[in-house]
What we know:
binds magnesium ion; disordered C terminus; Rossmann fold; 22 strands; seven-stranded mixed β-sheet; alpha/beta; 24 helices; CATH 2.40.50.140; single chain; binds adenosine-5'-diphosphate
Amino acid sequence: xxxxxDLANQPLNVAPALAKKLDKLGLRRRLDLVLHLPLRYEDExxxxxxxxxxxxxxxxxxxxxxxxxxxxxxxxxxxxRLEDASGVLVLRFIHFYxxxxxxxxxxxLIRAMGEIxxxxxxxxxxxxxxxxxxxxxxxxxxxxxxYPTVNGVTQPMLRKLIRQELKALPLPETLPExxxxxxxxxxxxxxxxxxxxxxxxxxxxxxxxxxLPAWQRLKFDELMAQQLSMRLAYRARRQGQAxxxxxxxxxxxxxxxxxxxxxxxxxxxxLAEIDADLAQSHPMHRLLQGDVGSGKTxxxxxxxxxxxxxxxxxxLMAPTEILAEQHYRKLxxxxxxxxxxxxxxxxxxxxxxxxxxxxxxxxxxxQLAVGTHALFQDGVSFSRLGLVIVDEQHRFGVGQxxxxxxxxQEPHQLMMSATPIPRTLAMSFYADLDVSVIDELPPxxxxxxxxxxxxxRREEVIDYVHKTCSEGQQVYWVCPLIEESETLQLQTAVDTxxxxxxxxxxxxxxxxxxxxxxxxxxxxxxxxxxRELHVLVATTVIEVGVDVPNASLMVIEHAERMGLxxxxxxxxRVGRGSARSVCMLLFENPLSELAKARLKVIYENVDGFEIAxxxxxxxxxxxxxxxxxxxxxxxxxxNLEEDIELLEAARELAPEVLQRWPEAAEAHLERWLSGRxxxxxx
Length: 682
Ligand code: ADP
Ligand code: MG
C-alpha cells in the first residue's frame, strides 16, 4: 500500500484516556479525524449589538459584566448581566461550577454565543458559550465548525486535532480522473478542506446544503466504497464451487398437476431465474422477494424439486416453530405423494424422533428437511446437501449464520423475504445478492379493507366478529405488544382470551402465544387450520408466514404500538381466500406523532413496497437491515432517498472501477472502510 495510506492509518497520537473517548466517536486512525465532518457551523465572524440581535438563531454578542448573582428561586441558577452600548442581556446558567463565578467579575469583557430569547427578566441566553476577550480582539474570519462529540471532548480540542491532521496527512485522490470528470466531482482534498475550514464567503446555510459540491463528493465516496465492497463480496462468492444442478422437470410437472391453481407469471419468472442460478457451478445467493401472500412457498417447493431430481438434498429453514411446522405440513403434503421423504427437525423434538430425522438427513433418505435453525446446529449432517432455502431471511440473527461449506462445496442458497426491501436499499445494502421479485399477487383475491377503530368501540368490533363467524369465516385477534415485559404480554393474551371466549360463547376461541410448548402451539394451529376453532387469539407469533385462507377478519389491538412492517405482515394473514377480508386496527388515544404517521401509512397503502419505502423514510435504514446491519458499513453522509442519483452513479461505475483501476479501488476502500468489516457473510 502507498505511503500516504500508511500515515493515514496510523493510530491517533493522543494520550490513552483521550484515545478512549475518541474511540467512542469512531475516531481511531489519523485519517478518521479528517473524515469527522462538522454537524453544523456557528457564525463568529460578526458581532451583533445586544439591542439589535435577532431572536431564534445563534448570535455572537460582546459586552461588559455589570452584575452576577446566584439565585435560589425558583431554582439554583447563575445570572450574569451583560451590557453593551445598545442594551442589556442576561446570561443564565442552570448548571455551573463555583469557579465559574470568578470569570464573570464585574467589568470583565465577555463574548457570548447563543440564541437570545425573551425571558422572565428580559432578553436572555441560556447556557451560552462564553469567553473573556480584550477590547478589539479580532473576530473569526470564517465560520466555526461544530463537530459531533462525546463527554470530555470539547469542540476546541476536536478542532485542533482535526486541523493538525488536515495539514499533516497527504490526501491523495482515490477516484480515477475519468470518473471524477464524468460526474463533475471536486477532489477529496478540496472537499474536506472546505467543510472543515470554510472560506469566509460561505454562509452557514450554504454549507449545510446537501447539494454543496463538497458534500456531494463525500457522499459519492461513501456510496462508491459501499458498492465496491459489495461487488467484491459478490465476486468472492462467485468464485466458490457448487454443484451445477439441472432437473428434467418431471417432479415439478407432477406437483404442478396436483395444485388447484396455476402459477402466476411472476412466479414462473422467478423460478426461471432460480433454475438458471442452480445450473451454475458456483453457489447461488438469491434473495426472493415477494409481498405477503404472493406465493413464495410454492416457488420454494418447486425449486427444491429440481435439486431433488438431480439427486441432492434440500434444507428449508424457517425462523419460528409455528412457521416451520406449517411449511413441514404443506411441503409434505405436496412432496410425499410424489414418493419423496420429508423430515422435520426442531429444537423441541423428542430425542427419539430427533435421532430418526438426523439419521434420515445423514444417510440421504430424506430428500427434504424442514425445520428451525436446529437444522444447522452441530451434530447435523447431510449426505448431499445441494440447496438451502431460508424463509423470512431477515429474521435470522447474525449468530445464526449458516456454516454450510462442506468439502470445498457450498450449497446454493435461496433466501426468501416478505419484508419488501425498498429499491434504494436493495441497490445499496443488498447489492451483493441477486434479487428476484414476485411482483404480482395470485388472482382472485379481493382487496383487504382496513379500518382504524378507536378501542372504545370494541362492542362494534365484537359484533363484527360474530357476523364473520356466522358466515363461516374465521378470525384472528392479535393481542397488544408489550415490549417491557414478556410476562405481562402473556398475561394480556390469557386475559383477552378469557374475555373473548365469554363474549363469543357460541364460537370456539383458541389461544396461541410464544410461551406455549411447540406441540401445544402446533395443535392449536392445526385446530384453527381445520376450522375447529373459529377465533384465534394470538400474540404476534403469527406475524410471519401463517397461512389459513379461510380467515377473513384480523383484529389488532393497540395497533399504535406496532411497527409498519409488523402491521403489514399481520394484515397479510387475511385476504388469502376469495372472501372479502377486513383488518381492524384498534388504537387508543392519545396517539404519538410517530404512531399517527404509521397508522396513516398502513391505512392508505396495501402495497408492501410502498409501505416499506415509507417505513424507510420514517425510521431510516438501520432498523430495516436487522441481521445485515452489523456486517454492513452504515452510511454516514449519504441518504438513500435524497442521494438516489449518486447511488445510481456509484452502482453503475463500481464494476468499471474494479476492472480498470483496481489500485484506486483498493485505496478507496482502504480510506473509507478500513477497520470495518468489509465482506458480508449472511
Ligand atoms: P407468501 O409469499 O406470503 O409466503 P404463501 O406462499 O404462503 O405466500 O402463499 C399464500 C397463499 O396463496 C397460499 O394459500 C398459496 O397456496 C396460495 N397461492 C400461491 N400461489 C398461488 C397461485 N399462483 N394462484 C393461487 N393461489 C396461490
Ligand atoms: Mg411465506
